[in-house]
Amino acid sequence: MAELAKRLHRLAGVLLGAPLPLRLRAWDGSEAGGEPYAPVLVVRHRRAVRRILYRPGELGLARAWVAGDLDIEGDLYLALQHLAGLVWEREPSRHHPDARPGPPGSAPPAQTLRTRERLAAAAELLALSGPGLPPPPPREENRRRTGRRHSRDRDRHAVSHHYDVGNAFYARVLGPTMVYSCAYWGDGAGLDEAQTAKLDLVCRKLGLREGERLLDVGCGWGSLLMHAVREYRVRAVGITLSAEQAALARSRIAEAGLADRAEIRVQDYRETADGPYDAIASIGMAEHVGEARYREYAGQLYGLLRPGGRLLNHQIARRPMPDERGYRLSPFIDAYVFPDGELSPVGRTVSVLEDAGFEVRDVESLREHYGLTLRAWVRNLEESWEEAVKLAGAPRARIWRLYMAASALAFERAQIGVNQVLAVRTTGSGRSGLPLRPRTWK
Q: Is the pLDDT reported for residue 109 higher than 70?
């Protein structure tokens, strides 16, 4: 087996259709391929090969990673950049031109030869992976999908899967601000300063004034509410579907002496009926709503605002596609990170808000800011790795490290973006109550 790494490296290149740009270390300790200082793809156990062969593409790789059968030594971001070009961006899908089959018998000889080579390579890898069926998915995979997609019970389960993994774990990742959305970076700012700047940016865009009522939809651990109550003297209500988030948010608010002006509820946005509010913030929550429910979501928020009330919708967006029917969720993200999460193009978000009656007043992209934020979170996780593993378990910590690093690259490469959309429920006279000059919050 001295040549095991060489065989694996060669066979991976055949299946991928290009040389594997990473150095590879096999479970027997042998190494092969790659430049001397290239990141090392570590195949810790032959189970990793079985997982990938039985579920080719992103989900098989994710299962091997979460289980600890597959690892990367060296620059994780560089390794993911290489793998993205060979695996994720080439994975067949309904909207990919390579997925369109030709008529029977139309495959050219060269393509037929490549197919035979790949089948032979897969057979050889299967032999190397050892006997037996594919191992079961790691228990962290979300396989319990009951009820209609984006029903209240199913949304509650999906939110719990992501957020109820331990407040102490999130504190290691997010830092003292406990803000789990894109920060707003400036020259020389650290993560905490950038997150505080984002909280204040939201409050200024909403034009908060003393005594007004603010609703925070998807309030997380209460950071925006606390900032708005303390700095802008508003009365605030925050809603979340995460029991763990709500418990810590209430504790933080009480310790800060703000409980007389801030309230946290475990409540679905569809169950909130105590308007009118002067302002609503929805920060990183709309991704959980789902395309089929988005008009209902926009209409619900519109109905909760008084005439002249303002909405700040902060939401991750994807690029529009030529054939929108081909859009599908990342299998890794859907199984391990955000079950049932969906991204929409920013243009569609604006259109739905307008259809609900809102006047959209400003759209600002913070895409580059999110790349910086995610890299800071990865750094926090890596610097407190042993403690994070004790708090949430190695598989969960590995999930968060992979998804945050991969997401940072996706934002940096403009594959996804994040936008703040400021909208207003205008009065009957057409007055918006917003400043005449745009971006006065800068």
A: no
Task: List C-alpha distances in Å: 27 to 45, 63, 84, 127.
Answer: 5, 17, 23, 15
Distance (Å, whole) CA 99 – CA 89: 13
Q: Secondary structure of 26-43 in the HEC alphabet?
A: CCCCCEECCCCCCCEEEE
- Residue 382's CB is within 10 A of a number of other CB atoms, namely 13
214-248 pLDDT tens trace? 999 999 999 999 999 999 999 999 999 999 999 99
**Rounded CA separation 423/432 (Å):** 9
Cis peptide preceding 276, ω within 30 of 0: yes
Q: DSSP string spanning 241-298?
A: S-HHHHHHHHHHHHHTT-TTTEEEEE--GGG-----EEEEEEES-GGGT-GGGHHHHH
Please say whether the beta carbons of 111 and 31 come within 8 A.
Answer: no
For 212-256, the three-class secondary structure string (H helix, E strand, C coil) is CEEEEECCCCCHHHHHHHHHHCCEEEEEECCHHHHHHHHHHHHHC
pTM of the shown model: 0.90
Structure tokens at 23: 């150095």
| Distance between CA atoms of residues 305 and 181, nearest Å | 24
